[in-house]
Amino acid sequence: MKEISRAHFLKTLLVGIVLMPSAAVFGGAKDKLRGDAVGWARLKTNSPVWERHSRSDPQLMTFFREQTTLNIDRKWYAADVENLAEMCKYPVLFSQSIQMVQDENGRANLAEYMRRGGFLLVDACCNHNYNPDFDVFLQNHIAALAVILPEARVQELPASHDIYRRPFQIPNNHPPHTFDSNIYNPRKARLGLYGVTIGSRLAGIVSLSGLQCGWDHMIAPPGHDTGCMRMLVNIYIYAMMQGA
Q1: Is there a contact between 109 and 81 (Cβ–Cβ < 8 Å)?
Q2: How far is it, in rounded angstroms, from Cα 189 to Cα 204?
Q3: What is the C-alpha to C-alpha distance for residues 151 and 184, in angstroms, rounded to an integer?
């Protein structure tokens, strides 16, 4: 899984252009720069909200295609945590939470997926009804990952990390946050991205930002949706290019 998916992705990037500066410059020729297709998938769990905000995932895919040379499918997919073969079709899996993965098979699949080279992105929804305390969400995920993947370490990424700078420069080297009902939460605002590492490899990210809420046009300042999608693009590309 790791070798096939990353090889396809690197074919896309090796054309020499990651960002698409202008459709007017490249026109229809930009599609000739694209390599083999990759897909965007959400991790399907027994959580009743595992697909929340997925209605706007096609917009995220459109952003990928318009702003980068990545040949990503225009639709989103689901990968069931109970089916390792299904999970391994996708180099990056997106989840709102892995706290609902309690059974032995699902946890074993997550561990094996990440050990094989798969990348897990967990992004907490900003809705207070689902996540009333983001510090608790983070600690719960650190505890869950300690059981699922004992060799992994979870630490906040420094502001100097490349994930904030390439291909998009993220303002203040800090992830954009979507706030419930657009009410600023200083405790949440201070939280950065937390990397899940296996040895020297970044195998996942735990985000408290509500990036998905941003690209789903939750109440937020103008341009916030674009900022969230840029952050997601940086995460995706970093996940695929590390070690290249």
Answers
A1: yes
A2: 21
A3: 36
pLDDT tens string 188-209? 999 999 999 999 999 999 999 9
Mean pLDDT of the chain: 87
How many other CB atoms are found less than 10 A from the CB of residue 231?
24
pTM of the predicted model, to two decimals? 0.88
Residue 186's domain comprises 2-241
Amino acid at 68: T
CA distance 35 to 114: 24
Residue 117 Rama label (left phi>0; alpha psi -120 to 50; beta) = left
Bond from prior residue into 58 cis (ω within 30 degrees of 0): no
Helices (H) and strands (E) in the chain, counts: 9, 7
Amino acid code (one letter) for 173? N
| DSSP class of 151 | T
Number of domains in the chain: 1
3 state SS for 9-69: HHHHHCCCCCECCCHHHHHHHHHHHCCCCEEEEEEECCCCCCCCCHHHHHHHHHHHHHHEC
Question: Residues of 186-203 as b/e, b for ≥16 C-beta within 10 angstroms?
Answer: eebeebbbbbbeeeebbb
